Amino acid sequence: MSDTPDRPIGKPATIEDVARLAGVSIATVSRAIRKPEKVADSTRKKVTAAIARTGYTANAMAQSLRTQKSKMVMVLTPSISDPNFPGLLTGMEKAANTNGYGVLIANTEGSIALEQNHMRFLSSGMVDGLILLTGHLPVAGQEKPAGFAYPPLVAASRPVTAAQVPYVGVDDIGAAKVATEYLISLGHKKIVYVGSDGTDPVSDLRYQGYLEGLEEASGRIVPWRVEGGHSNEGGRAAVERLFIKDTLPTAFFCYNDDVAVGVMSALRLRGYGVPQDFSVIGFDDTSIASYISPALTTLRQPRGLIGAAAMDLLLRMVSGEPALQDKQLFRGDLTVRESCGPARE
After folding, report:
1. Do 76 and 70 contact (CB within 8 A), yes or no?
2. What positions does the domain HTH lacI-type occupy (predicted)?
């Protein structure tokens, strides 16, 4: 259904269309465009959304947004259901509000079509900057609109490896090394890394940390990696593949907490205990980690700090300041609970 059903197909959107869709007067739309600081945040957001939905970008009034700050930034996320997202967003919003900015959440669910839709905000100048949680530039593999230029960009939580985009996140390598060394200190010599395939840069970084941790064992421990995706089901499937091959570790180092929960579930269904028979360690310290039984030993991400630092960096870039560094990493802290114990004989 069209956003403005009484407008003929192909006819350029007008300020009246925007006002009708936003439920405000034409004067309010004009004021939101020319002097956004004099319009309430809620009203400005409705006008901004209406402009993007109607495609009201060719009009000279709308194009004037390119020469002034909209005081809005966009956060592009692959999923708002990601357990890391709320903590990141809280940090971002606090930093944005402190600087007089609002935050637009663009949820893609992995859909290129949705990314293209969100690009209308960028091409119309509705946002001053963009934080990427997706690990890639928007509309990957698609041709950008004529005359399009990205606003200032910052990647958070997941680096954009295909472009020079400043990155803020956890030290995946350092944290994974700490986790591996902890398992070795408990006497484990058969440690498997359960991660995603080679297309996930974060999983690869954590695997690299795992390898560096094994170096402390002076070659006495052979690296071991099985694919377990990002989810509970991936962790369960990884355990089943290991049992089919009858090659079992004594400890599982999992890509994230969801995978670790799946591993523990599969072991429990087969009658094994954690940590009596197998040790399991996760990554992220999401809310589920402390509520399952046994409580999960994991690496804690400082999500609020990462979100705030990413927003601060973006707003400095929006104001014309250069990024002082290409990468800002925060330490991941080992949180010891109940899922790891001494290696069984």
Report:
1. no
2. 13-67
Q: Are 274 and 268 in contact (CB under 8 A)?
A: yes
Q: Is 321 left (phi over 0), alpha (psi -120 to 50) or beta?
A: beta
Q: Which tokens go with 112?
A: 């290129």
Summarize pLDDT for 88-117 with one digit per residue, the tens: 999 999 999 999 899 999 898 877 777 777
Helix (H) or strand (E) holding 155: strand 153-156
- Residue ranges and CATH numbers for the domains of the chain are 1-68 (1.10.260.40), 172-301 (3.40.50.2300)
Q: What share of the chain is helix, strand, coil (3-state, %, to 5)?
A: 40, 15, 45
Nearest-angstrom CA–CA distance, 28 and 16: 11
* pTM for the whole structure: 0.78
Distance CA 312, CA 94 (A): 10
